[in-house]
Amino acid sequence: MPKVKIVFCSITGNDEEIADVLDEKFQELGCEVDVSEMGQTDTSDFVDSDICVIATYTYEDGIVPEEALDFYEDLQEEDLTGKIYGTCGSGDHYYDDFCRAIYEFAKIFEQIGAVSGAKPVEVELAPEEEDIDNLDKFAEELVSKFQGQ
Ligand SMILES: Cc1cc2nc3c(=O)[nH]c(=O)nc-3n(C[C@H](O)[C@H](O)[C@H](O)COP(=O)(O)O)c2cc1C
Q: Which of 46, 99, 128, 147 has a CA-to-CA distance to 92 between 20 and 30 Å?
């Protein structure tokens, strides 16, 4: 069964909730899961995992949230060839660049050799029932992509 690493970046708790939903689903699918906050995580943790997941909010000023910048920069130096990745996160349609950070992280994953296992999941503010369904499907797709390798 795959080892899953979930890294979240959250100020008001929505992305932490997203990470919790995914944690539960991956465990239900029989995965070994580890969840940590981006500011407390070394990017090398992804090297020791099979499936790499980022859940982050988006703030309008900058490509990624300021507290995620070190992680974002360090990630560009890793080699994740052969790993499966997925990105998701919370945003607010009030802003122009809805959920932009999850696409910026997806670009980095592509550059460092990881393979997308599921389409990014956008969540409007806190995850609701429909979002939880989408996140559950996201986890299932990531696991089946890993199993199909
Ligand atoms: C100053 C500010 C700027 C924001 N800019 C964006 C943005 O550009 N795009 C977006 O989708 N959401 C934007 N948001 C909304 C947050 O991404 C959203 O509130 C998210 O749910 C926060 O996630 P968290 O609870 O995990 O911290 C912004 C919020 C604030 C307060």
A: 46
Q: Which amino acid is at 1?
A: M
| pTM of the predicted model over 0.90 | yes
CA Rg value for the chain: 14
Q: What confidence tens digit (pLDDT) does each residue in 86-108 have?
A: 999 999 999 999 999 999 999 99
Rounded CA separation 109/95 (Å): 25
Structure tokens at 94: 């009030």
Listed in sequence order, the residues at least 6 apart from 25 whose beta carbon sits closer than 8 Å to its beta carbon are 135, 136, 139, 140
From 16, 35, 95, the mutation candidate for ligand 1 (largest count of ligand atoms within 8 A of CB) is: 95
Alpha-carbon distance of 86 to 62, in angstroms, equals: 21
